[in-house]
Amino acid sequence: MKHQYSRAEIENYLLGHGSEEERARFAEELIADADFDALIREVEADKVDALARGELKGNDAEAWREFLASTGQLDRLRVAQALAERVRPRRPFRVWLQVAAAFLMMVSAAWWWTWREKPPVPLVAALRVNLDLPRDVTRSAGKEGQLQIAGKVGEVELRFAVAEEPASGYRLRMRNAAGNLLLEREGKGWPTGTLAIVVPAASFPQGMIELELLALGANGSESPVSFHRVRVVR
Fold first, then answer.
1. Pairing of the two strands 169-176 and 193-200
2. What is the average pLDDT value for the chain, to the nearest integer?
3. How far is residue 78 CA from its own chain's centroid?
4. Residue 139, SS3 per DSSP
5. What is the domain extent for residue 48?
6. Is residue 2 part of a domain?
7. How many domains does the chain have?
8. Global pTM exceeds 0.70
9. Which of 125-129, 132-136, 171-175 shows the lowest per-residue confidence on average (mean pLDDT)?
10. Quick count: other Cβ atoms within 10 Å of Cβ 80?
C-alpha cells in the first residue's frame, strides 16, 4: 500500500533525517509519483517563505538554510526575502496590496523562466534503488535479471541472498559482457540471510553485466556463492 506522507515526515526527509531504508522508500516514491513531487515542492516553498519572513528561529532556521545551500537554492531565498521586505505594511492597505501583487507577478515570471531553462536540483542527494539477487552459482545463459537506473539515482544496493558459510569475508566482482573487470569489492565478516553491498550507480554501464559473489576463507581461498547476469537499463 502506498504510504501517505505527512508534511512533518516530508520536512524530516528533506533535512536528512530517518533511516536509510526509510529514505530509500521516500526517494523511490519521489521518482515514481509526480503528484508527490509537487507536494514536496509545495512544502519546500512554504518553508522558504517562512524563513524569508523570519518565522523560523534557531536550529530550525539554520537547518533549512543549510538545506537550501546544499541544493543550490539560496537565490530562491534571497528573492523571497526581497519580496518580504517590499511588502512590509508601511503604506495604506490598498497601496500595499497593489505593490505586493505587481512584485509577485514579476518574481513569478522570472522564477518560471529560470526553472524552465534549468531544472531544479534533486532534493535527495543520493537516491538509491535495490536489486535482490537469489543464491545461485549456475552460469546458465538463459537466466538474466534487469536493473533500471533512473537519472536521479546515485546508488545501487545489491542484496545477495546467502546461507551460513565458514567465511571470514566476501569478494564481489562485476564484469561487462566482454569479461572485463569493472569493479571489485571486499568486506569482512559473513552475514546470515542477506549480504547488502552499496555501489555507486555510475559504476553500472548500459547493457549486460556479470555479478559474482565469493566467500573468502581465512587463508584467502575463494568459494563461489552467487553468479548473476543482469541487464542494466538507463
1. unpaired
2. 78
3. 26
4. coil
5. 7-117
6. no
7. 2
8. no
9. 125-129
10. 19
